[in-house]
Amino acid sequence: MAVVITKGESWVIKEHSIANYTQYKIINSISADIPESVSEKLKKNPKIKYIEEDAQVQIAGKPSQPQPPQPPQQITWGIARVKAPEAWNNSTGKNVKIAVLDTGISNSHPDLTVSGGINLVGKSKNNKWNDDNGHGTHVAGIIAARNNSIGVVGVAPDAQLYAVKVLDAYGSGYISDVIEGIDWAVQNNMNVVSMSLGTAIYSQALNDSTANAYKVGILLVVAAGNSGDGNLSTDDVLYPAKFDSVIAVSAVDFNNIAPIWSADGAEIELAAPGVDIYSTWINGGYANESGTSMAAPFVSGVAALVKSKNLAMSSQEIRNALAYSAVDLGVPGRDRIYGFGLVQAG
Question: Burial letters for 286-298: b for 16+ Cβ neighbours within 10 Å, e otherwise?
């Protein structure tokens, strides 16, 4: 599979008889399986901006610990730490649309309401976005589990969740599907895109996609990755968190300390709870999970609270507000571990 970026892709499809392809509006391109001979010809054509091989992306979570539900409803340590309850008198995320690009979201969990979505995994694109892994459901619960009498409550319980399934049952997917998910988010007027996934492989097409989405007003929040090695002289942040157009999020534990596995680098913008996070799971259950996968949705939820208070706010204004209100951690000022600091809603 290759992603072909053109100055108008219709002639490529016709000239090379490409039958099975996916067309993206956001970067004027297609992804398709093409022979090496065709690829080499296209690379020499001045109408082609670039061609790159597709690459895998993975969830940015640690092994899960499924647990039975623990009624009544809990306000977990992470929700309290970002001061979401203090914000609920003024904002609960209402009228904010959040696309969760992940393994899907459980379509029957009593603690979640999903407004729609799409399955982009495999050849048969459809609306069957039900989660067959658990990771996406866990992320969704952190963002917007309902404020009811059971389970947990999310950061922005009245935000609208959209399940954009770009990862399979094993938590794996492809850059091409992530691009298509971002494209879907743009076409469906999402306000926030939350991505708890990453890859060490650079993609110009993915970079262009996030940049274009940001330009049209979408705030993109991405897990920094779990590839940290404790060495501050190395940059461990994965893509797409490395891109300027997204908010890269690192993880902290109960003591506001980043675990060694939380990726560090100059791109880190904010930190959020990411260790032993209790949230929704498949089959109506709940689980504890750790990872920057858990940290990113806290930021997505807080962004929804900020946006909900003033729907006219731009993504850059929201980004500035989150940086300004963050609690500084580590060395004074922005740093490579915590960015501007611990995200705050209240």
Answer: bbbbbbbbbbbbb
| pTM reported for the whole predicted model | 0.93
Name residue 275's amino acid: V
Residue 148 shares a structural domain with residue 240: yes
User: Residue 10: CA atoms inside 13 Å, Cβ hemisphere, count?
Assistant: 0
**Rounded CA separation 43/51 (Å):** 7
Q: Residues 200-210: pLDDT tens digits? A: 999 999 999 99
Active site positions, annotated: 102, 135, 293
Nearest Cα to 162, choosing from 122, 118, 128? 118
Residue 52: the pLDDT is 86
pLDDT tens across 134-143, in order?
A: 999 999 999 9
Q: How confident is the model at residue 1 (pLDDT cuts 50, 70, 90)?
A: very low
- Structural domain containing residue 29: 2-53
Domain count, the chain: 2
